[in-house]
TrEMBL record:
Cross-referenced PANTHER family: 3-METHYL-2-OXOBUTANOATE HYDROXYMETHYLTRANSFERASE
Keyword hit for Repeat: no
Alphabetical list of HAMAP family matching this protein: PanB
Its job: Catalyzes the reversible reaction in which hydroxymethyl group from 5,10-methylenetetrahydrofolate is transferred onto alpha-ketoisovalerate to form ketopantoate.
Cell location: Cytoplasm
Pfam families for the chain: Pantoate_transf
UniProt: Mg(2+) binding residues: 44, 83, 115
Descriptive protein name: 3-methyl-2-oxobutanoate hydroxymethyltransferase
Catalytic activity: (6R)-5,10-methylene-5,6,7,8-tetrahydrofolate + 3-methyl-2-oxobutanoate + H2O = 2-dehydropantoate + (6S)-5,6,7,8-tetrahydrofolate
Family: Belongs to the PanB family.
InterPro entries assigned: Pantoate_hydroxy_MeTrfase, Pyrv/PenolPyrv_kinase-like_dom, Pyrv_kinase-like_dom_sf
Enzyme Commission number(s) from the entry: 2.1.2.11
GO BP: pantothenate biosynthetic process
Length: 264
């Protein structure tokens, strides 16, 4: 049976860590799904790792849906969550519902994610949940606000800033979010939030006390040309890909590939 939003809440109760990764195309989505990842997120980080933008800001809803449809074809078991891109939901709960509705109907995703915990986002979360669209929340470093923060900086460092993030997380849970991403905040703050909430926290750069962890798959594989300090690479695919491509080039240039079949 495929993973459900309710199951993730049970995983937290049972103390079973949630494993999440991002995907932007069919091939990687299928590999992640077959490797028993719990949550596949079509993150708007694809703007940077798959499309070459400097930030997530330029990504459109149409681009998101295009990639999410490809990912959907590769995911059978994991829960599929799709990021709503910048300015596809911030305007109003109605705009959020329209955008989430398109993602839901056109891609077959089981949930959407929105950044932020201020009042308008809490309202939009409630609106989507009432309409039957599960929402994953996202607080701390919310990359769509990178220019507001003045860079990809850790958030919640002062007691006041930390308390504000905690209050946002509580409000998002009350609005009906089924889980929440905690990005680049101090580990003790992430621990406090994780203890306070019933819904699972999924951390990235938020220490070991979250109820799950997520990484951008290009970082995990050592495929990205830049990665944040809190990411960990479990392979060096840049090197492997470069070597394979160079070997092909060398063999073609030296007339070693293809080799003519010996005549019978
Ligand atoms: O876009 C993304 O990859 C994300 C994760 C880092 C949570 O939002
Ligand atoms: Na994102």
């Amino acid at each position: 049976m495929a993973i459900t939003t309710q199951q993730l809440i049970r995983f937290k109760k049972e103390g079973r860590p949630i494993v999440a990764l991002t995907a932007w195309d069919y091939l990687f989505a299928q590999l992640l799904d077959q490797a028993a990842i719990d949550v596949v997120l079509v993150g708007d980080s694809m703007a940077m790792v798959a499309l070459g933008y400097d930030t997530t800001i330029p990504l459109t809803l149409d681009e998101t849906i295009h990639h999410a449809k490809a990912v959907r074809r590769g995911v059978k078991q994991a829960l599929l969550v799709v990021d709503l891109p910048f300015l596809s939901y911030q305007e109003s709960p109605e705009q959020a519902l329209r955008s989430a509705g398109r993602v839901f109907k056109e891609t077959g995703a089981q949930a959407v994610k929105m950044e932020g915990g201020y009042e308008a986002i809490v309202e939009s979360t409630a609106r989507l949940v009432q309409a039957g669209i599960p929402v994953m929340a996202h607080v701390g470093l919310t990359p769509q606000s990178v220019h507001q923060f003045g860079g990809f900086r850790q958030q919640g460092k002062t007691p006041e800033a930390g308390d504000r993030i905690l209050q946002e997380a509580i409000a998002l849970e009350q609005a009906g979010a089924f889980s929440i991403i905690l990005e680049h905040i101090p580990a003790d703050l992430a621990q406090r939030i994780s203890q306070k909430l019933t819904i699972p926290t999924i951390g990235i750069g938020a220490g070991p006390h979250c109820n799950g962890q997520v990484l951008v798959t290009a970082d995990l594989l050592g495929l990205s040309n830049w990665q944040p300090p809190f990411a960990k690479s479990y392979a060096n695919l840049r090197e492997i890909v470069t070597e394979a491509v160079q070997s092909f080039g060398n063999e073609v240039r030296q007339h070693q590939f293809p080799i003519e079949k010996p005549q019978r």
